[in-house]
């Protein structure tokens, strides 16, 4: 609608400044040293929701970082959209690889560079601004509820409890989330599925103290070596995961579904060039699109042990450890997979070491029904602003809470993300395109309009 | 001699205080942040040599940390002993495992706890004090030269140059070093051989940046996983090292030699209990004594990559790295082994990653001739103070410069160490027994006396 366009054009600079201000708050949920910053960020989100026109805005305490809630109920008879987002961000390290401070946003070549720019501050804030536009132009076509949490990057441990305790307040017809990517601005897409996650930490202990590698080397098991051997054994020669039972629940796609999936444009040469790798890697028998979309994976997210400082130290370390996470696909259950991993890892540990396996967090995979009215509304909204119907794709990432919404609130979720895979999520120099930000703000009101209209029928 | 005993008894407390003062200087050679401390330590060593009665004492600059030299020439016709030691120490980390500050020495249950107490400040300083005793009692039976360096823990990179440039000044009949261990105070021993060392650092690079493990996981090689697979492949099922040609030069011992070696008292139950391990580990077909003495080994001294901080981060790291060192035995050449390692590691790297292999430092193995007059003098000296002839054993550690002395100065080396394997060398809570310290000071003058006498014959 023209009034939307006009209002956005008039206030676009402020929309950007407000986002930059949010990005300056280092709300790193994984690092307790930033607990004050997450509080500050939650308070800022509350303030912005109030300014945008939301009612009953509240910073809701949890056992961890707080959840910000706000709503606008214009007519109980109208459909209600529950907008979810998260104001917490990933840790910024390795810091030395950032071209500019992770929390000092800079605009370069049409992109906003800052931790959280795409994941998820830049994306959830589009909804706050789209809401402002509809409020200020008196065009809000449905009820909106906002739930912006602060623990998405650490597993949303307290969100489930919040959902259980606020079923009435959170009553809605659908959940709308912008926390995913599109194939490109030329090929808009919507994630129709997400992978689940099981995040583990393992610790291998050999001798009860660091030893001199000359005096004891060769006679005592080196936990770093053993850990390497154990991790190496988790994939076979075809890069299949060797954990017994790991694939038992995996929903296999038939040839037609796989063919459809592989319709999505994919330029392998450009993909390799962008990543700076000579060869891709992955499970034998599947394409890259399948490997990142419909197949489960196991990745070492971090490994450490022994002397990692400057120079050399001839030590036989007492301990070595690793963070290992698995991406899951329908119908794998993250708790069962975590247990399978733990049992297997403990089983393959040789008697010369002791292992400790801890489950960090996880979430189940999710698939969006493309015949859902809200999915159709999202498609039409994108069609309206991108001039092209979005391609349905399977996202490789995980937003564990999506499965939670279905379980606790009985709500389906629409993943209308405006980011790009090249946004360096979880990496140094995370970015979010200005065009993506503005286009998102432009698209969201259409979603609400179409969703309200279609829901009537 | 009684005069020695009396003098030592009279000055023993000062001997200890002087050592504690040295131990308070954090002369960590591997860490550039301690460069000032190593300078301070060198100056302190110089001062102590002067006080003990040495002439021409000098702090000799090198491209790295300085070497302290001093000498006492009483008669050019008499034999000359070159005493070698090192004032630099290993990094103290992991700091949190120390019961007391690594550089705040404390005496507990008859032990001096501090980094460098046994390796090597406590041991080289015995020679300074033994020298003082002989000087003060006018009983010095031969010429003595002291060469105390500051780079032993980082590979003595500049010592070779110093030897080359100071052949005249370093002229001697034998090198005497106390930087090794005894089996126990009840079973004194002398190392008749040392293992060589080749210390490497490897870096595996996958994608050009850290990636989101959900978006890219399963499609791009994870350098941490690949590094684990590569390290795992360096040992076979029998824990033999798989690097082609690695064992080609290894001097095999015949049954008699192996039997003699295995005469040394070894209590496996006590050994396991001390280390807190349920099972030992090592190369199939060899005993623990052989594995640590006459067989080469490959150990991961450190490994790191990805997110190692608090909590969880779903990252697919761009790089993973490890420090890997090999202990070598006669007649392996450390440069050749370093090259074999590099070639092999580069060869086994899959095309989906890039590897960088750097050689840190190394040294060749060494065997002491037990028929050498100085070896006999050392045996008798120990017999005189311990009441027992020492058992000849093969030490597992490496003092690369021992081979260097033979090459550059044509001198044999006697390894008359007074430490214990339980001294936590290179580990938290390094210690050195007061009794070991005092007994060493008591023993050393006998070595000089017997060596001077036997050399006459």
UniProtKB/TrEMBL annotation, chains A, B:
Domain Peptidase M20 dimerisation: 192-350
Organism: Chitinophaga defluvii
UniProt keyword NADP present: no
Keywords for the protein's UniProt record, in alphabetical order: Dipeptidase, Hydrolase, Metal-binding, Protease
InterPro entries given in the database record: Cyt/Met_Dipeptidase, Peptidase_M20, Peptidase_M20_dimer
Official protein name in the record: Dipeptidase
Enzyme nomenclature, EC number: 3.4.13.-
Example GO molecular function: dipeptidase activity
Pfam families recorded: M20_dimer, Peptidase_M20
Keyword hit for Repeat: no
CDD domains from the UniProt entry: M20_dipept_like
């Amino acid at each position: 609608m023209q009034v939307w366009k006009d209002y956005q054009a008039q206030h676009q600079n402020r929309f950007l400044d407000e986002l930059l201000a949010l990005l300056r708050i280092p709300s790193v949920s994984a690092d307790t040293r930033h607990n004050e910053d997450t509080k500050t960020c939650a308070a800022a989100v509350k303030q912005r929701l109030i300014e945008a026109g939301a009612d009953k805005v509240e910073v809701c305490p949890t056992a961890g970082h707080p959840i910000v809630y706000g709503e606008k109920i214009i007519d109980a008879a109208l459909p209600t959209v529950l907008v979810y987002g998260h104001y917490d961000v990933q840790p910024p390290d390795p810091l030395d690889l950032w071209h500019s401070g992770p929390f000092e946003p800079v605009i370069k070549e049409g992109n906003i560079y800052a931790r959280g720019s795409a994941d998820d501050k830049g994306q959830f804030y589009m909804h706050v601004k789209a809401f402002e536009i509809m409020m200020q132009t008196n065009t809000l076509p449905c009820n909106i509820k906002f739930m912006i949490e602060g623990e998405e990057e650490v597993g949303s441990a307290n969100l489930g409890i919040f959902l259980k305790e606020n079923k009435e307040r959170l009553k809605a017809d659908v959940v709308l989330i912008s926390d995913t990517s599109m194939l490109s601005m030329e090929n808009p897409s919507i994630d129709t599925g997400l992978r689940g996650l099981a995040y583990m930490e393992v610790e291998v202990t050999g001798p009860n103290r660091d030893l001199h590698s000359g005096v004891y080397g060769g006679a005592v098991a080196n936990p770093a070596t053993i850990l390497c051997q154990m991790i190496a054994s988790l994939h076979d020669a075809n890069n299949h995961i060797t954990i017994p039972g790991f694939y038992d629940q995996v929903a296999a796609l038939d040839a037609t579904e796989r063919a459809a999936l592989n319709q999505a444009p994919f330029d392998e040469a450009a993909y390799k060039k962008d990543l700076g790798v000579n060869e891709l890697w992955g499970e034998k028998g599947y394409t890259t699109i399948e490997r990142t979309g419909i197949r489960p994976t196991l990745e070492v997210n971090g490994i450490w042990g022994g002397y990692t400082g400057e120079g050399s130290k001839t030590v036989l370390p007492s301990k070595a450890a690793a963070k290992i996470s698995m991406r899951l696909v329908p119908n794998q259950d993250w708790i069962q997979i975590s247990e399978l991993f733990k049992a297997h890892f403990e089983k393959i540990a040789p008697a010369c070491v002791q292992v400790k396996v801890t489950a960090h967090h996880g979430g189940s995979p999710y698939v969006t029904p493309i015949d859902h009215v809200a999915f159709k509304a999202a498609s039409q909204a994108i069609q309206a602003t991108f001039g092209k119907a979005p391609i349905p794709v399977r996202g490789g990432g995980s937003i564990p809470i999506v499965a939670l919404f279905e379980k606790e609130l009985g709500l389906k979720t629409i993943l209308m993300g405006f980011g790009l895979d090249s946004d360096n999520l979880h990496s140094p120099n995370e970015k979010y395109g200005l065009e993506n930000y503005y286009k998102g703000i432009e698209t969201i009101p259409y979603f609400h309009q179409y969703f309200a209209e279609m829901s009537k029928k």
